[in-house]
């Protein structure tokens, strides 16, 4: 099997693992962003190996381990410490900006910092990388609610329903946000 095919297969497996992993368990009482129920992917998972530079110091699979370690650190910066600026730096340093999970967390962090225009660009980048990335549809939908774009948020909700059904945490979170009256000043 060629190196390209192996990398493509690894990327597909990693993407499926990210989609299948229940990263968020509950919606905040005010319809806010969910709090994580578990940590990011375990270190024994097989994320994509898309390093732009390969040095002789890297053994096979070490770039995967480095990616997972960096992703976990950024995840902790976001959900444990609410240190969004640091998380953005850490995620960008991974060199996987076109990975939907990475781009989504960068967008989420910019949204939490109040930079909605940059946040939007990252959400769109995540969806370009993976149009079926449910977490991006949820977070971008919450972004739409915050911006007063309820029709657009409703579209995002319908995409989530098509991908996961109406019982998923992502669907329930965005649906709860849409149930709140417009202009209530809620932050998701």
Which tags fit this structure?
8 helices, 188 residues, mainly alpha, globular, two-stranded antiparallel ribbon, Serine Threonine Protein Phosphatase 5, Tetratricopeptide repeat
Overall SS class: mainly alpha
How many strand elements?
2
- Helicity range: 55-70%
Number of helices: 8
Largest sheet: 2 strands, antiparallel
> Quick one: CATH superfamily?
Tetratricopeptide repeat domain
Number of domains: 1
Order of helices and strands: HEEHHHHHHH
What is the fold-level CATH name, i.e. the topology?
Serine Threonine Protein Phosphatase 5, Tetratricopeptide repeat
Do you know the CATH architecture?
Alpha Horseshoe
The whole-angstrom Rg is: 17 Å
CATH C-level category: Mainly Alpha
> What is the percentage of strand-forming residues?
under 5%
Strand order of the largest sheet: 1-2
